[in-house]
Design goal:
single chain; two-stranded antiparallel ribbon; 9 helices; disordered C terminus; Lysostaphin resistance A-like protein
Length: 280
């Protein structure tokens, strides 16, 4: 029953925040403010509903050390996407024509922050965490990663390959990051860093949602296997490769820290018992 209450609570915050961002999306400064407020709202609602339904503090969104964890996550996500762009640039498939829009990038900070926080709370904070308690880390990672990827089929220029790519490079990777750290600030940072680098810095299409106006005025061309086509670089084999590699790194860390939940070994993955050693 706690799953239902938590899912409904964060979904309501997700809907409210998303509607507010859409209402101001034509104003970059308002998008910045509303996007950050939407992120704060869904995190607060998650902490509140966990406290009410599980009679404990939501340690995975504790404020202590949140800035550092979010910062490290942002560096990981931005670095990962930058590696994709470097490969596309050196192979002649990404060209920079000049500077883009600073104001557009500012608006994307809010938009991407709202999207990263709400999606991480829903998919990793509620879905992965609770499902993992029942079927273990690996099955929960696979199941929620696929659901996360398939949810992107609703986007404007979605493709089945794009959804599969998102499942591998983001759905699996972010669940593995949560398993390794038991901290949502880090996964929110990774998600935000990836998305903001894609749209706010390199001005590429993000998950098939159309062109972004970021810091660079750039164009991309070449085979869909490398560029992702209309879906954007998230449909690139480079993205899938880097995401799969990072998934393995995070799973190795999860094993090393004893954070992998075996199938049939029911326990609260982010509960009070793990508070002494997690997150690192």
């Amino acid at each position: 029953m706690r799953f239902v209450w938590q899912f409904l609570a964060v979904l309501a915050a997700y809907a409210i925040g998303g509607a507010a961002i859409q209402a101001v999306k034509d104003n970059d400064w308002l998008t910045l403010v509303v996007g950050l407020a939407a992120a704060a709202l869904v995190i607060y609602v998650y902490a509140w509903v966990v406290r009410k339904t599980e009679r404990r503090q939501a340690l995975d969104v504790a404020l202590e050390g949140a800035g550092a964890k979010f910062g490290w996550g942002t560096l990981i996500g931005a670095g990962m996407f930058s590696a994709v762009i470097v490969n596309l640039f050196t192979s002649g498939h990404y060209e920079v024509d000049g500077l883009g829009s600073v104001q557009g990038a500012i608006g994307l900070v809010g938009f991407m922050a709202g999207a990263a926080a709400t999606e991480e709370i829903v998919y990793r904070g509620v879905l992965f965490r609770i499902i993992e308690e029942h079927i273990g880390t690996y099955l929960a990672l696979g199941l929620t990663g696929l659901v996360f990827g398939l949810s992107h089929l609703l986007n404007e220029d979605a493709t089945l390959w794009g959804a599969v790519a998102i499942a591998i490079e983001a759905g699996f990777m972010l669940a593995a990051a949560y398993a390794a750290t038991r901290n949502l600030w880090l996964t929110i940072g990774v998600h935000f860093g990836w998305n903001f680098a894609a749209g706010g810095v390199f001005s590429t299409v993000v998950s098939g949602n159309g062109d972004s106006e970021g810091l660079l005025d750039a164009t991309m061309s070449g085979p869909k296997l490398l560029t992702g086509g209309d879906f954007g670089p998230e449909g690139s084999v480079y993205s899938v490769g880097f995401g799969a590699l990072l998934t393995l790194v995070f799973l190795w860390l999860a094993h090393r820290r004893g954070n992998v939940v075996p199938f049939g070994a029911r326990r609260r993955a982010a509960g009070a018992d793990s508070a002494a050693t997690l997150p690192r």
